[in-house]
């Protein structure tokens, strides 16, 4: 029986294909001292360097997301008092547009 025709080979090819879609390979250029410190810390924690870097990135991104400065949204005052309308009410919207034209 040929290995090429086995369902096992198809399963493995599909598994490898999906794994490639889920993970991305990236090359990082790190200073030697930083890379060595990261490797040592990962080893001390009993995890891979990849897991260590992934965790560090997630922590940093989560931290920035929580403490990011909030930008105030712009507000507008109508030129004519009471001109605010419900945009879901298309008839009222057309009335305002017709009056302003």
Automatic annotation (TrEMBL):
<dbReference type="InterPro" id="IPR010985">
    <property type="entry name" value="Ribbon_hlx_hlx"/>
</dbReference>
<protein>
    <recommendedName>
        <fullName>Ribbon-helix-helix protein, CopG family</fullName>
    </recommendedName>
</protein>
């Amino acid at each position: 029986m040929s290995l090429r025709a086995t369902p096992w080979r198809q399963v493995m090819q599909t598994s490898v294909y999906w794994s490639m879609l889920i993970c991305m390979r990236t090359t990082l250029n790190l200073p030697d001292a930083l890379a060595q410190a990261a490797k040592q810390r990962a080893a001390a924690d009993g995890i891979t360097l990849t897991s260590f870097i992934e965790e560090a990135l997630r922590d940093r991104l989560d931290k920035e997301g929580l403490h990011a400065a909030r930008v105030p949204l712009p507000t507008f005052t109508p030129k004519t008092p009471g001109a605010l309308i419900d945009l879901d009410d298309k008839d009222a919207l057309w009335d305002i547009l017709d009056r302003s034209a």
